[in-house]
Amino acid sequence: MLRIGMLTSGGDCQALNAAMRGVVKCLTCSTKDLEIYGFLDGYKGLIYGNFRMLTGADFTGILTKGGTILGTSRMPFKQMRDPDENGLDKVDAMKQNYYKLQLDCLVILGGNGTHKTANLLREEGLNIITLPKTIDNDLWGTDMTFGFQSAVDIATDCIDCIHTTASSHGRVFIVEVMGHKVGWLTLNAGMAGGADIILIPEIPYKIDKVVEAIQARNKRGSRFTILAVAEGAISHEDSKLSKKEYKEKLSHYPYPSVSYELAEAISKKTGQEVRVTVPGHTQRGGAPCPYDRVFASRLGAEAGSLILKGEYGFMVGIRNREIVKVPLEDVAGKLKMVDPESSIIKEAKSLGISFGD
Ligand code: F6P
Hints:
By secondary structure, the chain is an alpha/beta fold. It has helices at residues 16-30, 43-47, 90-100, 112-123, 148-169, 184-192, 207-219, 236-239, 243-251, 258-270, 290-309, 328-331, 343-350; strands spanning 2-8, 34-39, 51-54, 105-110, 128-132, 172-177, 197-199, 225-230, 274-277, 314-319, 322-327. It contains 13 helices and eleven strands. Helix 1 (16-30) crosses helix 11 and helix 5 (148-169) crosses helix 6.
């Protein structure tokens, strides 16, 4: 008998279901002796023993379904070692449930924080396989995470729609794209949508450079300018502040987000009408795009194969278009950021895109 536990943790994204389906399809092709324990709402389900017994039937028809059939929640890694409000040791509770159910392994789908906890459980002796999900594409060890391409499509659609109205009205438009720490999504959606200015956390912007880029377009006779701005875009001055000073600044920040601060500054300096559009969580919603369906299925299949071989302690990722296994200890705690010196940034700049630097 093979007993596997499964959970999805952290912010959801497209193709979580496709990835779980991939794992189960692969396993059920090889063994009929399979028990699947689906832990509900992320690590919470594992801590409090909240699970559903699942069968192959639960995974049919979900390839195209967004969200996660298991539910998810955020449980910061930092708090994992703190007892809960009733004094329960969370790590101990997860281990106890794992051993009580006699699991052979846990399949964990998640992003950065999730991987830190997954690695902690590995260090504690549990058999773990992880799959890299997040629209942010910021997991180290894999060229791509699932959810990312679907989110790029949605953010691009948004910029496409903004293009037509921006050109009709001759306005400056800011589209705020998700990503607090990294700019992969903004960079890709910005380039795909033909944004004129792209601001990402990895390249602090100078407002005068942003204004210069807008005015240069005006001079060339362009009626509008589109900025793709990451949630975590940061000005050059703010990037010089210590973490503490920046936190202090944000504690009495008068704007809903950086885009509104930028909008006010641009409008003051250029006298132009500026509008902000925030697609927000739509970027994580809906059906996975075909690329993500295939990609997540491939990852799931490899995860299933590793389980059948009894090879644990890996994240399954992709490198140079090949599915690979990456030791969990190498992945945990590392962020994959956009390198300001990378070729894609140079190419974007050579197309005339301004990064405000
Ligand atoms: O981690 C994915 C992500 O969508 C980020 O891009 C975004 O900043 C954050 O989650 C939003 O988190 P929440 O869903 O908790 O508001």
